C-alpha cells in the first residue's frame, strides 16, 4: 500500500436495548474482524465500533470517523425499520424512510456502503 492510499474505516454501530432479546454482538464483531484480517486487502481497512447507538449518534459518528462502510448490528422489524436505544437504553423504532433519508445524506460524506445486519432488514 502506498503512502497516498488512505486507510478506509469500517464503522460498526450496535444497539441491543435492555428491553430486547440479547444479541451476540461481541461474537459478531469478532467475526467481522477475523474475516477482515483474512482478506487480501486487510491493510486498506480499519474497524471502529460504537455500542448502544441512538439515532442522534449516527450523524456525529459518521462525521467523526468518516467511514467508507457503515455496518449496523442489532434488531430490525422489516418495513418498520430498525431498533435503536433511547437515552435510557430502552427500545425506540427508527422507520425505514428515516434511515433512507439519513443514509442518502451520508453518501455525500463519503459513505460508500451501508450494511444493516438486523432481522428483516432486507426491506
From TrEMBL:
Residue intervals of the CHAT domain: 29-121
InterPro entries: CHAT_dom (IPR024983)
Protein name: CHAT domain-containing protein
Organism: Nostoc minutum NIES-26
